[in-house]
């Protein structure tokens, strides 16, 4: 395996590890912020731009943005099924919902305004349908074995996604890049070990993080070809951080604090 591929794969468990450690220090909501951000997809789309060209990467970015609809289906299905039937059923329901919506997206073409409208619709769906926490929660301990299992699960998922992204066209690559790797690891662990109230805080945090995810991929999709890699990715990073900063303040009334 070449060094670049190893680096790509290393970024994924690193992102999950950082988000899990953030939960230990600042609570489940902040863990969700980091889990929803493009900590995994951002570096991968940069590599795609360098390896496959800006036109390919820009198209992947717009499909990834539209793929927020599939992420919304994943999070909502996991939330409601998981609360009633447990974390395994919730995870399977989330994957099933993602597969149904993602398969539909894989057969479509996306001008920037369609991708943007899908992204906004996804955020609104999650804002409206995801459960809200109803009581305070203690900071989780996140023991070492749990942290290791989270990172191992993230690595396995990322290996499959990366394998697919370099073997298919930009539309399928975009759908694969929107697969919720951190969203398939952090929420199930949280539900199993800390309960539904903690899951609600994590998922509301994910919603905030995904505003940064959507902003990042929108800017990359629109600006990459006219502005070039360096300027487009810098602008996308600024947009992502600004979106999370703004939305985290706006969304405080919907998430009970973790302190």
Question: Any overview of this molecule?
Answer:
- Helices cover 80% and strands 0% of the residues.
- With 259 residues, the protein is an all-alpha fold.
- The protein has one domain (3-254).
- α2 (28-36) runs parallel beside α11 (196-227) and α8 runs antiparallel to α9 (170-177).
- The longest helix has 32 residues, at 196-227.
In total, the number of strands is: 0
Largest sheet: none
Average pLDDT figure: 79
Helix share bin: over 70%
Note the run of SSEs as H and E. Answer: HHHHHHHHHHHH
- Which residue ranges are poorly predicted, with pLDDT under 50 across at least 5 consecutive positions? 255-259
Oligomer: single chain
Strand content: under 5%
Radius of gyration: 17 Å
Kindly list the characteristics that best describe this protein.
259 residues, mainly alpha, disordered C terminus
Structural topology:
Layout: H1 3-26, H2 28-36, H3 41-52, H4 54-66, H5 68-85, H6 87-105, H7 112-129, H8 144-165, H9 170-177, H10 186-194, H11 196-227, H12 229-250
Helix pairs in contact: 1-2, 1-8, 2-11, 3-4, 4-7, 4-9, 4-11, 5-6, 5-7, 5-11, 6-10, 7-11, 8-9, 10-11, 11-12
Quick recap:
By secondary structure, the protein is mainly α. The protein has helices at 3-26, 28-36, 41-52, 54-66, 68-85, 87-105, 112-129, 144-165, 170-177, 186-194, 196-227, 229-250.
């Amino acid at each position: 395996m070449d060094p670049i591929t190893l680096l790509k794969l290393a970024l994924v468990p690193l992102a999950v590890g950082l988000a899990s450690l953030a939960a230990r220090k600042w609570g489940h909501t902040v863990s969700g912020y980091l889990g929803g951000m493009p900590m995994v997809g951002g570096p991968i789309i940069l590599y795609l731009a360098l390896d496959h060209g800006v036109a390919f990467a820009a198209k992947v970015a717009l499909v990834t943005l539209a793929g927020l609809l599939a992420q919304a289906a994943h999070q909502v299905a996991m939330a409601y099924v998981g609360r009633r039937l447990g974390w395994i059923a919730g995870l399977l329901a989330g994957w099933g919902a993602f597969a149904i919506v993602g398969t539909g997206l894989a057969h479509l073409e996306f001008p920037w305004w369609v991708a943007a409208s899908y992204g906004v619709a996804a955020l609104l769906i999650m804002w409206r349908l995801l459960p809200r926490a109803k009581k305070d929660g203690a900071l989780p301990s996140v023991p070492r074995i749990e942290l290791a299992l989270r990172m191992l699960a993230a690595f396995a998922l990322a290996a499959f996604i990366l394998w697919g992204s370099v073997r298919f066209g930009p539309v399928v690559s975009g759908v694969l890049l929107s697969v919720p790797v951190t969203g398939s690891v952090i929420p199930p662990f949280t539900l199993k070990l800390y309960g539904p109230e903690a899951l609600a805080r994590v998922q509301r945090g994910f919603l905030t993080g995904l505003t940064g995810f959507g902003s990042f991929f929108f800017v990359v999709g629109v600006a990459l070809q006219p502005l070039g890699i360096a300027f487009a990715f810098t602008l996308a990073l600024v947009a992502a951080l600004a979106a999370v900063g703004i939305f985290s303040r706006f969304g405080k009334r919907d998430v009970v604090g973790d302190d």
